[in-house]
Amino acid sequence: MEEKTNIMMQNTAKEEMPNQTCLEHPEDTKGILEVNNLSAWYGKTLAIKNISMSIRAKTITAIIGPSGCGKSTFIRCLNRMHEVAHGGRAEGCIMLDGRDIYARDADPVVIRRRIGMVFQKPAPFPMMSVFDNVAAGLKLTQFWSRHWELEEVVERSLRQAALWDEVKDKLHQSGASLSGGQQQRLCIARAIAVQPEIILLDEPCSALDPASTLKIEDLMRSLVTEYSIVIVTHNMQQAARVSDMAGFFLADQDRSGVLIEYGKTSQLFTNPKDKRTEDYITGRFG
Amino acid sequence: MTSRNGEKTVSPVPPNTRLPARHSGYSDKIFSNLMLFFTIVMVGILAALVYILTKDALPAINKFGFAFITNRVWNPVTDIFGALPAIYGTLVTSLIGLLIAVPISIGAAIYLVELAPNWLKGPASFIIEMLAAIPSVIIGLWGLYVMVPVVRSNIEKWLGSHLSVLPLFQGPPFGVGFLSAGLLLAIMIIPIITAVTRDAMKAVPNEQREAMFALGATRWETINKAVLPYCRTGMIGAVILGLGRAFGETMAVTMVIGNGYKLTASLFSPGATIASTIASQFGEATAGVYTGSLIELALILFGLTLIVNVIARTLVWRMTSLKAAKK
Amino acid sequence: MMNLQERGQARRKFINKLMLVLSGTAAAIAILVLVLILGYTLFKGISYINLNILIQAAKPMGQSGGGMRNEILGTLILVLLGCVFALPIGVLAGIYLAEFANPRVAATVRFTADILSGVPSIVVGVFVYAIIVMPMHSFSALSGGVALAVIMVPVVARTAEESLRLVPDSMREAALALGITRWRAVVGVVMPGAMTGIITGIMLGVARIAGETAPLLFTALGSSFGVQGLLKPIGSLSLIIYKDALSPYPTDQQHAWAGAFLLVLLVLGISIIVRWVSNRKHN
């Protein structure tokens, strides 16, 4: 008899903090996602502490740092997936288009429509076909939809994910029958199909071979014309190749993750302001 | 909320016409409550069962009190009912069943997990599981017309002529009676004892076996020293589960126990178990104390199986949590 | 002449061999018993099977040539009723246990389901008699269906819960990240992923209740008048086997074997197919 809980069991009695942190914007830039004093816990452990950053629209923002410094926790807070895990709790505010996604009346479901996510291990729905996988986000929110509407959306999403040519004859095969790299692009297509504004990628290439990794990096550059992208990666070279902005995370002495430095990728990698950033970039640790 | 220059502004949510306008939490709540309702129904069934049985057994409980369990008379005419022979019958037949089934089940489990060739393990286990799927009434039918004659003419005859010094084997060989019922029970509980013992043995990590082999132990020594001690809890749980199953078994037992109502040491004698008494008499019972007594019997049977099953589940659960802890 | 060490070795080898033989014999006995019972039932039963059995109603006591049409129908109706009552409760309780309940509540409910599945089927029959047959003043197919449902609910609930638990969390995460509500994620993604397991559990439950007799003894009761509707008594294969087996007339006893043939075919057929399908899925 297992007592294991799964991630469906949300704490329905969450305490919502009043949004005192959302009042002022000290930065001049107005990003699509303004993170203000975000802290997050797993049960009693403080995983990330007082993160503030402004994520710009239509850019690729990389979150880098050694493992265990809260990068994944941070990105999961951006679309309120963190609280889905047992004991997950977040405080602070994140402004999406001027409204705090952690406000008391904010609906996580709507937020996740606008901020999509692709996970580290490709997770296509195995009992659905490729077509149904991509259409899943639409089919599971509407009560009915005309098939040609879905066809349109599926083709568009697969094309944007650079997967259409490879699967257009296999649309009705199981989603799990594709290769690893294809599966991940399928997950990207699935995320795009609901037309989010922001796409979060949590180490999307770490389970893939180098060829697939490059394909996905190319894909990101083409997607960024329409979507804003935040990517967590432990691969510095990837961050340097792909991203426009980068945020460097590190665990402080209490084992909580903090944001050490945030700025243009080119500047962070050639002329970092913080010594710890420089140490990480030059490979002294991590 | 205030904007940057201090004026109060209200920022609307950007329109997205394809999404539901209302807060999506409502549908979740409805669904969750629907499921909670049905879950409560399931729990409620058990609660209702205990309540109703107790309530309807009251005519008998009030009349006889504790003497119900110690009295041996069962007389619908005078409305005097005592459960002792039925309880005795349940215990005796289950004991016979256990005595026969346990060695066979544990032996079979040992063979299937440790000693059988790999190609045989799957099919053989499957076949034994199928034995559990045969309906009780069919086992009773076979027992009555195929097994009982053999018991009467061969087994009871032999036992009666060779071991009649024991009161167990005295008395005329009817065929139907405690012994046949016990034999059928043995057949019916072999699958569950085997299955749970198999699970317990499979839970033993292979490193234990490998360590013993590396010391030069024979297969049997490995089993005896490395595997069996490990799964003692699970095996006891398996046996107790079998016991619980034997207590509750009705149809097959009713068909071969001969419908006596006696407290006797002789295993050849016709007798009754709690389940067989209920099964054979409930249809003709009149309301009041007669039915009440039968329902009290059902309550006693429920209590017996409840205690036994809880003990068994605790033991088996401990075995599975140990297994999980090892991983 | 063997020295001490060789003798010890020989003894160990002998014991090893002995145990192999003993345990193998035990397994053989267990298998043999099944083969005996099953084989006898099939061989004896088939000799009394003819088309009449399936299409005719039973004849009055003692006369030969009657059929089991009503009893076959009765079994089907009772199993169907049992499913109608048990499936919503069992499946939804299983979903609740796997997806929505907090651990303490889940442990209690699971424990209750386990206890319920350990209640002897005759006790279930007495219970349903008390709550349905007595107030209605009549035996009925309905009460029989309810009794079978009480037996089936815990089986379905536990297998449904276990199947749902096997669906990996990554599936749930991926579904929620698309911005769909929790219940649609469960119904649209998690349940389809567990569907084979859920259906296996249901079919095993069906096989179990199709063979049950004790809970029907004082609920459905059995009927010599055929199927008369849900509110009247109804027969079943298991009930007629029981009744005919205890009858003094040889024709009735033959009838019982024929019925046993059909019932064993039905129950074992479902069990075997279900297990074979689920083994294939796992490999």
Q: Count the helices of chain A. How many?
A: 10
Q: What is the tally of beta strands of chain A?
A: 10
Low-confidence segments of chain A, given as residue ranges, are 10-21, 23-29
Q: Quote the average pLDDT of chain A.
A: 85
Reported for the largest beta sheet of chain C, the result is: none
State mean pLDDT of chain C (0 to 100 scale): 89
Major sheet strand order of chain A: 6-7-8-3-9-10
Describe this structure in words.
The complex is a heterotrimer of chains A (286), B (327) and C (283). Chain A has ten helices and ten strands. In chain A, a hairpin with a 2-residue loop joins strand 1 and strand 2 (45-55). With 286 residues, chain A is α/β, with parallel strands linked by helices. Chain A has helices at 71-78, 108-114, 130-139, 147-160, 164-167, 180-193, 210-223, 236-242, 265-270, 275-281, and strands at residues 33-42, 45-55, 60-64, 88-96, 99-100, 115-118, 198-202, 228-232, 245-251, 257-264. In chain B, 71% of the residues lie in helices and 1% in strands. Chain C is flat. Chains in contact: A-B, A-C, B-C. At the B-C interface, helix 1, helix 3, helix 4, helix 5 and helix 6 of B face helix 1, helix 3, helix 4, helix 5 and helix 6 of C.
Which descriptors apply to this entry?
heterotrimer; A: 286 residues; alpha/beta; six-stranded mixed sheet; four-stranded antiparallel sheet; 10 helices; globular; B: 327 residues; mainly alpha; MetI-like fold; two-stranded antiparallel sheet; 12 helices; 1% strand; disordered N terminus
Describe this structure in a few short sentences.
The complex is a heterotrimer of chains A (286), B (327) and C (283). Chain B has 327 residues and is an all-alpha fold.
Outline the fold blueprint.
The complex is a heterotrimer of chains A (286), B (327) and C (283).
Chain A: E1 33-42, E2 45-55, E3 60-64, H1 71-78, E4 88-96, E5 99-100, H2 108-114, E6 115-118, H3 130-139, H4 147-160, H5 164-167, H6 180-193, E7 198-202, H7 210-223, E8 228-232, H8 236-242, E9 245-251, E10 257-264, H9 265-270, H10 275-281
Parallel strand pairs in A: 3-8, 3-9, 6-7, 7-8
Antiparallel strand pairs in A: 1-2, 1-4, 4-5, 9-10
Helix pairs in contact in A: 3-4, 3-6, 4-6, 6-7
Chain B: H1 25-64, H2 67-70, E1 74-75, E2 80-81, H3 84-115, H4 118-133, H5 136-162, H6 178-202, H7 206-214, H8 219-227, H9 232-248, H10 251-256, H11 274-281, H12 289-326
Antiparallel strand pairs in B: 1-2
Chain C: H1 4-47, H2 51-55, H3 69-100, H4 103-118, H5 121-136, H6 141-166, H7 169-177, H8 182-210, H9 237-245, H10 250-282
